């Protein structure tokens, strides 16, 4: 499985172009981002374009096949899961055909044109939350205008996207730290778990027999995927076999439990609900694909404006964070990304999806790093640490190293083709055989993945553990426990408020809360926490050099710590255990 | 929780009396065990009697309360679980009232008169297997004689028990090694899991709705107990809190999931099956307690003789192994036991239980060590091992030490009283609220406990693991992998054959197979495996000095290894991690 990364003849030009894009240190009118529209996009394209040929030639390796299959499942299963929820809660406006169309559109655009083709774009739970909250609002007045309102929301959102990308405003993403991105990850995880439970509750509307069987399948599905992925990360079996388990956990689990639900007899006779499908390539509702957005009262057009702004705010955070985590420092990436250009593209897909009445796609937060992970060549190294117990009693620690990443466009593109294939009649019929309960299991896997590996939980376990068994060089020991409690306490309040609001009709306001965590972190927290405390507990989410190149260079936060001096805790853990393989759903 | 063990003023006399009982090295007629009947029993009583007052005075400590509650659940829940199975499969002859009566009888006799009151005696799955296999045989001819046949089986079994105990034949238990006791533990674990599945399958006879809910409750019950016990063995939380979790896992889990099944609405409306009860203190069938054993054809009386012999053979192995594991070397026991005397008592309870038509009680293999464990004062010590990584990076390893055991009779006695209390009307009504699905969960917890900690599985994981991550001083590395495969292969064949036979009408023959593993080990295996291999992989099951005192001293096996030179593997593991807390169900 060894693989030489493509040589980098353009190293020099990249170095140069990175130096080219920054607003730091400029004076006069030059320092105002909005006065130099398109500068970020121009540099993004200029920086990335030279790599385009290698994005295709680098792709001829087995990892691309494994990655395509894994991402097809990891992208499609949650998309369908969220669509089941949206379908019920938007008067059956958004269905599977829209979900597939939207996912395929996003995959085609971003795999061919994206500056960073590693960032998978698709349907998230948050856009689902958005769509049905707007439905809840619209339905109070007149449900029939919902398609047009959503079209206008998409149009406005697209316009705001283009403004943000032309005005180089993605630069502010460099101020995002783990404080807010972990809170966001926890929020997303909790929402996923809630969606899973709701899916199972819905199963009971088909009778308690279906409900109980649904719960059973969801739990066993969760156990299967979770167990296979754990096994994949253990030291049991040969490395190649473990690799297969980790790569194909979703394939194995999904095939098995879908098949299980069709075993003739008691299981088959139970009225489980299945994925609802309509005629291939047709909208779920009897309508043409293009929404007649011109038939809408001016009042509603303007009501859609704040909706569009909020969508942009959500995507600004959600898409860019997902792109950041797909390019996190733990992956030895050689090729640069481009945040401004990708956000412009996202505006385009938002525009098209809005006009066609599709779910608006954007970067998938918990799944984004899975794509990079699936393309990463890992090697489990043996680190022998001799102890005072003498020869033979050395600690033999497995250290997982990410050796190289197969950076290319083909896996993303092939996954898109597979989704287009899924839109055809025969494969739609296959989709229809999948019980909704399996998707509840998907929610649990992805949601729990985001929670289990979350820094908030890690700190909590540290605080709850018996002190004497913690190694003395653990960085968290250098700061007061009270301060750690306070840190995760503030995070928890942020998460709790956002989760709570998501259950109400005010849910569309949640992007404001999430983005508000960034200024809270930069402006307020340095006054409460010392430099040292921030250094241990926090870390820049945009922490790799290739990433910061597109964002105008490393940020300067009030506490005045150099970008590479954050994250003592994370780096301590990595030096011990190596990087952790990215299971689907885990944010860090 | 510190606790000073009672001082041992009788140390000297014990030393003396241990020397007194042995047949090794004797010559002439003196060396024949059967020619000196009752010698073992005499020494057992003589050895133990001086400790009787301290068995009561030592009991005034909190551990006895925790132990009583834990054992009440760990003894009663599986007993009821097996009875549900027996009830269905013996024409509803054996019911809950019989199970409670039998358990109470055994608890009273062994807590008051037993030489080793730590050994809990009750209803096992194997006697259930026995009872319904005999039913299957009898029913071919005439179902109505079943009670009398079982009474005679009990009578014959009692007679054989008394012969074994008077003839000092329990001595041969010292030849039992982990080879056979681990195979037996694995066999028992598998039978338990099968019983759990059968219990759930039976739930489907009440409709698939009840079946699915039953599966759900069983899985969640399993997860609850397993999770709580794992948490109890971790380093999270304060030690006293972890202790509570471990002590009361069954109480918490059982109360919660029984309550869950009664939540009004969908859950309550589901037709789960509950523990069937009849009038308090009355036999399940309309009969008097005393079986009219005198009304039986002489043919059947003699047919019952081999049944009785097989029961004795089963109990010979099962009861004595359970007693051995309750007194395993890992527990710092000060007071001696007495195998001959206890087996005599077991004959008496077998006799009485046979006449009254109760399930014959005997030592509970997977649960036996749980009683000792619940009375053990553990301390989790910190072992700091410095490494080459320098100061602060020392390995901080938790080592669990068993500091002392509260050796007394009161917990066993109080548990017996609690069982008698459960026989009354009001508490029978409480029992009736328990869904059978919870008992399927009990089967899974106890069965999986016996499998998870089994040496066979440990060796298998060793064989499957990547070699380079195994510490070099691991004793299994000193022998050929091929030989380890062969060792667990032979064990696996033994287990597979016994499990297979248990599913047929020849099931009553399984004690022969199990006891045949002992001569197989002593006579055949030393020819296949080298001294070194036996030393690493095998260990005496009777491995503490207080135990061997009653069995006539340490055995001499053909490979000629000293008793304390076996078990290199086990001792290696203990030196690393300390003893493992005995979760219910784990045999070693």
From TrEMBL, chains A, B:
Localization, UniProt: Membrane
UniProt cross-references to InterPro entries, sorted A to Z: HCO3_transpt-like_TM_dom, HCO3_transpt_euk
Limits of the Bicarbonate transporter-like transmembrane domain: 39-205, 212-540
Gene3D superfamilies the UniProt entry points to: Helical hairpin bin (1.10.287.570)
Entry annotated with the keyword Transmembrane helix: yes
UniProt keyword terms in alphabetical order: Membrane, Transmembrane, Transmembrane helix
Keyword Ligase carried by entry: no
Spans traversing the lipid bilayer: 69-87, 99-129, 149-169, 206-228, 240-260, 298-317, 338-360, 430-451
Highest taxon listed in the record's lineage: Eukaryota
Membrane topology: Multi-pass membrane protein
UniProt protein name: Bicarbonate transporter-like transmembrane domain-containing protein
Organism: Coniosporium apollinis
Lineage, opening ranks: Eukaryota, Fungi, Dikarya, Ascomycota, Pezizomycotina
């Amino acid at each position: 499985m060894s693989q030489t990364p493509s040589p980098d003849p353009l190293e020099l030009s990249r170095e140069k172009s990175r130096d080219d894009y920054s607003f730091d240190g400029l004076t006069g009118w030059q320092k105002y981002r909005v006065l130099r529209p398109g500068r970020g996009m121009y540099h993004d394209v200029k920086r990335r374009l030279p790599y385009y040929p290698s994005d295709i030639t680098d792709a001829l390796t087995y990892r691309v096949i494994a990655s395509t299959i894994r991402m097809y499942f990891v992208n499609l299963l949650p998309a369908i899961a969220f669509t089941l929820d949206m379908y019920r809660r938007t008067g059956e406006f958004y269905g599977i055909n829209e979900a597939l169309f939207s996912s395929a559109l996003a995959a085609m655009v971003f795999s061919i044109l994206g500056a960073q083709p590693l960032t998978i774009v698709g349907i998230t739970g948050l856009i689902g939350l958005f769509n049905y909250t707007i439905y809840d609002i619209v339905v109070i007045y007149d449900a029939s205008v919902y398609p047009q309102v959503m079209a206008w929301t998409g149009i406005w959102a697209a316009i705001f996207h283009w403004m943000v990308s032309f005005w180089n405003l993605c630069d502010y993403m460099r101020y995002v730290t783990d404080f807010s991105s972990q809170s966001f990850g926890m929020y997303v995880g909790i929402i996923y778990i809630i969606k899973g439970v709701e899916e199972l509750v819905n199963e009971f509307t088909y009778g308690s027999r279906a409900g109980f069987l649904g719960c059973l399948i969801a739990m066993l599905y969760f156990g299967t995927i979770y167990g296979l992925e754990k096994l994949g990360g253990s030291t049991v079996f040969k490395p190649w076999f473990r690799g297969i388990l980790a790569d194909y956990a979703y394939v194995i689990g999904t095939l098995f439990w879908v098949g299980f639900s069709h075993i003739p007899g008691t299981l088959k006779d139970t009225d489980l609900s299945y994925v609802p499908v309509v005629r291939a390539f047709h909208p779920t509702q009897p309508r043409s694909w293009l929404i007649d957005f011109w038939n809408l009262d001016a009042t509603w057009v303007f009501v859609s404006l704040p909706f569009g702004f909020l969508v942009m705010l959500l995507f600004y955070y959600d898409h860019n964070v997902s792109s950041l985590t797909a390019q996190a420092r733990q992956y030895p990436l050689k090729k640069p990304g481009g945040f401004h250009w990708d956000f412009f593209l996202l505006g385009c897909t938002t525009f098209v999806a809005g006009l066609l009445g599709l779910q608006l796609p954007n970067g998938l937060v918990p799944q984004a790093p899975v794509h990079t992970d699936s393309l990463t060549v890992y090697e489990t190294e043996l680190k022998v640490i001799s102890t005072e117990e003498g020869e033979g009693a050395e600690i033999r620690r497995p250290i997982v190293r990410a050796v190289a990443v197969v950076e290319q466009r083909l896996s993303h593109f092939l996954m898109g083709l597979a989704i287009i294939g899924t839109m055809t009649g025969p494969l739609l019929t296959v989709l229809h055989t999948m019980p909704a309960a399996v998707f509840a299991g998907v929610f649990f896997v992805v949601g729990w993945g985001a929670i289990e590996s979350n820094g908030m939980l890690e700190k909590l376990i540290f605080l709850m553990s018996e002190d004497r068994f913690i190694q003395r060089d653990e960085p968290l020991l250098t700061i007061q426990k009270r301060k750690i409690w306070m840190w995760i306490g503030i995070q928890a309040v942020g998460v709790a408020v956002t989760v709570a609001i998501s259950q109400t009709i005010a849910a569309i306001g949640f992007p404001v809360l999430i983005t508000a965590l960034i200024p809270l972190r930069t402006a307020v927290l340095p006054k409460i926490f010392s430099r040292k405390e921030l250094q241990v507990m926090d870390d820049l989410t945009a922490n790799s050099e290739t990433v910061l190149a597109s964002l105008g260079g490393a940020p300067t936060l009030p506490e005045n710590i150099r970008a590479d001096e954050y994250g003592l805790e994370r780096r301590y853990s990595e030096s011990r255990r190596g990087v952790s393989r990215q299971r689907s759903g885990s944010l860090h």
